[in-house]
Structures are given as C-alpha cells and as structure tokens.
Design goal:
mainly alpha, Arc Repressor Mutant, subunit A, 7 helices
C-alpha cells in the first residue's frame, strides 16, 4: 500500500471570504498600473457591503508600496470610477467603497411534471444494464482555459509555481468554476493569478 500523504492541505476560502472584483475592471486593465491593480484588489478584500476606513499607511503596509504610490493608485481608481472615496473628518482616515453591479434576480425554475419510468427491456441472459461510464475529469490546462484562456508551457509553469500539489491547484480552479468566476482572455496573467490566489496563500516551492 502507498504511504499516506501527510503534506499540509491549504483550505479553500468559503464564498463569504472570496474577493469580488467589478467586471468594469476588465475594460480598464490597459489603463491602470500594476500598483493600482494591487491596491484595488486589497480594497476589494476589505469591502463587505459597506464603506470602510483605511489610512494611506495601512494600504501601503498591506500592498508593500510607498505612500506616494498608494496615493497615485487611489487617484487613478477614483478617476476610473472603480472606487468611491469619502474624505475623513479631521484626523480620521478616508472611507472607501468598491461598487459592484446589482445582481439580476433569477426566475424560479418551473417544477417538472412527473414522468412514469419506462422499464428497460432485458435480453435473454442479461440480468442488468451496464453502468454508465463516468466522464473523465478535465485536465489542469482545460480548467485554466475554461476560466481564463489556453496557456503555453511557460505560463503553465508560472501558475504551478504557486502550488506544490496539483490537487490543491485543481481545487482552486474548480472553485472558480463553481462560483462562475474567471478572467477575460485578453487580461494579463498577473490578474488571473490574483483571482486564483486572492489571499496570497499559495504554496511556493
């Protein structure tokens, strides 16, 4: 028997902790800088449906940028209307909000009428029907292409650097499939990596 695998498993964040990015970001990727993108992702991680306070120093500490770079990023996000910013009173920090489009209510699915099952005919000597073959699982490359676009060997290697185990990477990709999230095919690989690993918890080799 093979030895049990005692390598640590990274828990996948539940839906309430996942970061939601506005679809409007995809139309502005060519305009904003990498620093602006990183600041925007951090602000989205702090957005829980209400305005929140965050000082320049706090954002700088979380993103690793200097105060000047954070201010420039916030200015660009404000100009692109990706965030709403309210000046704080006195010594209080500014308040931020990352607006998301309203979700359209889904129409209830009509109940299906019951159908009487038709008994399957059996041939002589055939006591049971063969089991239905299971569909093979999609490959890692197919999952990436479904949530982003087909990638070459170099890009695939860069994605796999975030994880030591293929099973963990598969769980992250399947989680995006279940939430129907992904990145447009013309988006940069860095954005896909940020959406795939929003909290920076990937296992680097």
């Amino acid at each position: 028997m093979p030895a049990p695998d005692h390598s640590p498993q990274i828990p996948i964040p539940d839906a309430q902790r996942c970061i939601q990015l506005s679809p409007a970001l995809l139309t502005r990727l060519k305009k904003i800088t990498p620093a602006t993108l990183k600041v925007y992702i951090y602000l989205c991680s702090q957005n829980h449906g209400a305005r929140f306070s965050a000082s320049i120093q706090k954002i700088a500490a979380a993103t690793g940028f200097r105060d000047r770079a954070v201010k420039d990023a916030l200015k660009q996000l404000d100009e692109e209307r990706l965030i709403e910013r309210t000046a704080g009173r006195g010594s209080q920090p500014n308040q931020y909000f990352t607006p998301l489009p309203a979700q359209k209510p889904t129409a209830p699915t009509p109940a299906a009428e019951p159908v009487n099952p038709i008994p399957a005919s059996k041939s002589a000597g055939d006591e049971s029907l063969p089991p239905t073959p299971q569909q093979p699982k999609p490959t890692i490359q197919e999952l990436i292409a479904d949530r982003y676009r087909p990638v070459n060997n170099r890009e695939l290697a860069e994605i796999q650097k975030l994880y030591r185990e293929e099973a963990v990477l598969r769980q992250r990709l399947e989680s995006l499939v279940r939430r129907d999230e992904g990145v447009a095919a013309d988006g940069p690989l860095a954005l896909f990596l940020a959406v795939l690993n929003p909290f920076g918890t990937g296992q680097r080799q």
